[in-house]
Amino acid sequence: MNLQDMVDKVKTSPDYRKVGMILCHNGVVRGFSRSGEKVSAVEVQVDYKMLDELIKKAKSHPGIVEVLVEIDEGLLKVGEDIMRVCVAGDIRPNVFPVLEELVNRIKSGVLKKEEEIV
User: Fold this and answer.
1) pTM of the predicted protein model
2) Please, which of 5, 21, 49, 114 could form a disulfide with 1 given CB 3.0 to 4.6 Å?
3) CA angle, 86 then 90 then 93, to 5°
């Protein structure tokens, strides 16, 4: 699913009338590592059990109506999408922290990435 498909899916929720905003994150493969080395690709693996737990936790926060996450696995080249996340909820103070926490937890615990250094 691309981000627009995810937003469209959120809009079909029976609780959509409670939504005041939809925040989205689209993570892509960078051409350079955090240490500055040139990267040609990234091998990505996903812990789906942990991902499901994080999504359930995110949905339990006050004001959150829907949480959707798509992660691409395998060998991904520079510029390709890795992860798309949509969090829909009522107001900014409820939605922004949930998106940030969810993305950080996915990156630190759900994803296993190995960069191919050029």
Assistant:
1) 0.94
2) 5
3) 85
